[in-house]
Design goal:
This protein is an alpha/beta fold. The protein folds into 2 domains: about 120 residues, Rossmann fold; about 100 residues, Orthogonal Bundle (Arc Repressor Mutant, subunit A). Helices cover about 40% and strands about 20% of the residues. The strands form 3 sheets. A 5-stranded parallel sheet has the order 2-1-3-4-5, with helices on both faces. Helix 7 packs across helix 8. The protein binds calcium ion. Calcium ion binds next to loops.
Length: about 230
């Protein structure tokens, strides 16, 4: 079955260009002209990835992205944002709102397709697995036990939840704000700096003296569970 991409864009010429190139690359394509249409389409038939334009009539792409992330059913839906903005601050805003990646207009169709494929490779379906693994790190959700290689890792409850969230989305970069919402909850006021403290504790617990650091600090953006160096 071909992977389904939902294009959310209001400019017909760009929709056609995207459709043409994605279909040529063996994707199935659906389109929506604005955020509301997009949310309905997602509800009716879950796409494998959403290509979301930042500049949309009425509801902005950023807001659509936030809404998709707020719903438990669509929380893990891969999103690539399309935008005319290339500023670092906008990139961070896009990632903070929950986009998995970002393509700046004008883009080459080949680059866009490469990004789409990369994001799809990275995202895993959210399953009710009993065990989460990344490199030699594993988390047994039933026994509530974490180990790295043969070594048992002891974590506090917050570090456990933080690691669980990162293990559920390997390779994805999360801002401090996103981690706060996911791990501490929307209603609790915690300073973003708190995330740094817990990441530090988590690193100390999971990384032995001669072991590779599995958490990547992404400058100006946040953290991810990653084998790439910062
Ligand atoms: Ca647009």
């Amino acid at each position: 079955m071909k992977p389904l991409i939902l294009i959310v864009e209001d400019e017909p010429s760009l929709v056609e260009l995207l459709r043409y190139n994605l279909e040529k690359a063996d994707f199935e394509v659906q389109t929506a002209r604005d955020g509301d249409e997009a949310l309905v389409a997602i509800d009716e038939r879950r796409p494998d990835l959403v290509l979301l334009d930042w500049m949309l009539p009425m509801t902005s792409g950023l807001e659509v992205c936030r809404r998709i992330r707020r719903q438990p059913e669509t929380r893990d839906l891969p999103i690539v944002m399309l935008t005319a903005r290339g500023e670092e601050a906008d990139r961070v805003r896009g990632l903070e709102s929950g986009a998995d990646d970002y393509v700046t207009k004008p883009f080459s169709p080949n680059e866009l397709i490469a990004r789409v494929r990369a994001v799809m490779r990275r995202s895993r379906p959210a399953t009710a697995a009993d065990k989460l693994e990344f490199a030699d790190l594993s988390m047994d959700l039933v026994a509530h036990r974490v180990s790295r290689g043969d070594r048992r890792v002891h974590l506090g409850p917050t570090e456990f939840r933080l690691l669980r969230y990162l293990l559920e989305h390997p390779g994805r970069v999360f801002s401090r704000e996103q981690l706060l919402n996911a791990v501490w909850g929307h209603d609790i006021y915690v300073e973003p700096r708190t995330v740094d403290v817990h990441i530090r504790r988590l690193r100390k617990a999971i990384n032995g003296p001669d072991e590779r650091d599995l958490i990547r600090t992404v400058r100006a953006a946040g953290y991810s569970l990653d084998l790439e160096d910062a």
